[in-house]
Amino acid sequence: MLTHLDSQGRAMMVDVTDKQVTFREAVAEARVRMQPETLHLIQSGGHPKGDVFAVARIAGIQAAKKTHELIPLCHPLMLTGVKVELVTCEPDSVYITATCKLSGQTGVEMEALTAASVAALTIYDMCKAVDRGMSIEAVRLLEKKGGKSGHFKVEHDA
């Protein structure tokens, strides 16, 4: 059994030394809800701070690569792929999907969740001057492949 506690109950990083190297992939999502006018400003390219989606995408990728520096007890991983996609949904939302991949001894769920979260926070940061009422919602793991625990996939809402 894997745990983040040692025999004395102290926090520790899980030892993955004896785990096999396998392909692993995780997909996470986040949603940013905003005023329709804010979404239109982003879509039109007229935002005074520039291309909001380009900056959010880069921020998400960078965050995935540095997850071990942000989340205590996460392993530093050599990611082989990180993809951050942003899709608008009229009238008031941006959906972010982050996918992380590697061949390694531990999963990439935290990296995908971190990428989606930081991309959402970046959108908030860039747009807060015009819309302080934005909300970040539905940060969750959608799918995980590989490793000892096998495949996990969320059944999407109808």
TrEMBL record:
Domain Molybdopterin cofactor biosynthesis C (MoaC): 13-147
Keywords: Lyase, Molybdenum cofactor biosynthesis
Reactions catalysed, as given in the entry: (8S)-3',8-cyclo-7,8-dihydroguanosine 5'-triphosphate = cyclic pyranopterin phosphate + diphosphate
One Gene Ontology term of the molecular function aspect: cyclic pyranopterin monophosphate synthase activity
EC number(s) stated in the UniProt entry for this protein: 4.6.1.17
Pfam family, one: MoaC
Top class in the EC scheme: lyase
Coiled-coil residue spans: none
Keyword Lyase: yes
GO biological process: Mo-molybdopterin cofactor biosynthetic process
Record pathway: Cofactor biosynthesis; molybdopterin biosynthesis
Catalytic residues (UniProt): 125
Function: Catalyzes the conversion of (8S)-3',8-cyclo-7,8-dihydroguanosine 5'-triphosphate to cyclic pyranopterin monophosphate (cPMP).
Subunit field text: Homohexamer; trimer of dimers.
Family from the record: Belongs to the MoaC family.
NCBIfam families for this protein: moaC, PRK09364.1
Name of the protein in question: Cyclic pyranopterin monophosphate synthase
Protein's organism: Pseudomonas duriflava
